[in-house]
Amino acid sequence: MAPYESDESTTAEEADDLRAGRRKAARYVVPAAVVGVAAATIGLVPALADSGDPNLPKISAQQLIDKIAKSDVQQMSGTVKISTDLGLPDLGGLESSLMSGATKSGDGSSADPTSKLTELATGTHTLRVASDGPDRQKVSLLENAAEYSLIHNGKDVWGYDSQSNEVYHSTAADSADAHKKQDVPATPKDFTEDALKSVDDTTSVSVQGTAQVAGRDAYRLVVKPKQSGSTVGQITVSVDAKTGMPLKFTLTPSSGGAAVIDAGFTKVSFARPSASTFDFTPPKGAKVTEDGKSEHGRSEHGFKGGDRAPRSGKDLAKGTEGAKGADGMKVLGKGWNSIATFDTGGQGMPSGSAAGGKFGGILNSLGDKVSGTFGSGTIFKTRLINALITDDGKVYVGAVNKDALVKAADAGK
């Protein structure tokens, strides 16, 4: 059965075209498992509800996938609202305390994007975004009486936290490296690219009506797992009818309820942003962190680049059965039911005050004890990504339910 389903019958020749279109679009549009473990997992607020159903020419799933793949928006600016509901418990400020302690001890800068943008993993946030080709992008996270900006301009990548008056700066060996450095998923296109990479014969893809997002007419592309056992219910992408650019991304869980991830434009323009949008000079007196070294009030271009933190989960669901990563991680199964597994070398979960202190006790209170042929362990759950850590140090993680994790652990024993 072809992976793309619609209300119309599909011939064998058309099915081949659909598969070809999927492969072509894969580099643009990624799995739900991808979005989950990622620190930047995000979801939208009710204010972004669609405003009307425009009357647009009929289009097939194949044609819409092709439209996304061919989309080449180079200049744009706009406002994106993001909100995430993973169902994580309130840790009572533990995380912020740890981050604050690390910054004060000199272990990092509050302007470093690898730590700052993890704030997108929970709650609701407003971003201003702008792009002028592959060499210039800007993302600003608007906060209460403060703003964090991440700016890529040529070989320079700047991060600025107005609240702490701290600056992070790096330069890359070339423009492509600089682009990778700031490539944090923050727009509907980013999430769509991650979600469609998992589309295969385990996936149903169809066009279901139209919508209007940020004043733009759009088609609604719906992606659903065919397999049972996935925590993903469906992904809905509103695709701009004119440009083919995703305007809104919504991921709802198989358990029902509010969206886990929902990101969409409230305003968007495809005019070229002003060149000054991407200019940045450290403010007077700002603490500048450069290549892991902090200096007050001045900046030297000495950072040699380096890989950004990976989008967690992106490699989780794209592997085939038995595939191994360079770090020894294996991916079991395929498609939406992929489970990543690795061995920590016998280091299981700390438990109680004797083994893990307060932190160990907190971890145990968040998990559910399970047992099986593999022995025993603890399952940590969110509304999207679940993880089983066995007492002998093996880890199984994926966008799958508890039973699937236990079954995988039993099979691996």
Give the full name of the CATH homologous superfamily of the largest domain: Lipoprotein localisation LolA/LolB/LppX
Structural class: alpha+beta
| CATH architecture field of the largest domain | Clam
User: What is the helix content?
Assistant: 10-25%
- Mean pLDDT, to the nearest integer, reads 75
- Cα shape: globular
Low-confidence runs of at least 5 consecutive residues? 1-12, 18-50, 91-106, 174-182, 296-326, 351-359
Number of domains: 2
Distance between the termini: 34 Å
Largest sheet: 13 strands, mixed
**Strand elements, count:** 20
Give an overview of the whole structure.
- It is a single chain.
- The chain has helices at residues 12-25, 32-37, 61-70, 94-104, 113-116, 175-181, 188-196, 352-366, 402-411; strands spanning 75-84, 123-132, 136-143, 146-153, 156-161, 166-171, 203-213, 216-225, 232-240, 246-253, 261-269, 287-290, 293-296, 323-324, 330-332, 339-343, 368-372, 375-381, 386-390, 394-398.
- With 413 residues, it is an alpha+beta fold.
- It folds into 2 domains: 12-296, outer membrane lipoprotein receptor (LolB), chain A; 323-411, TATA-Binding Protein (2-Layer Sandwich).
- It has a 13-stranded mixed beta sheet with strand order 7-8-9-10-11-1-2-3-4-5-6-12-13. Strands 14-15-16-20-19-18-17 form a 7-stranded antiparallel beta sheet.
- It starts with 11 loop residues before the first helix and ends with a helix.
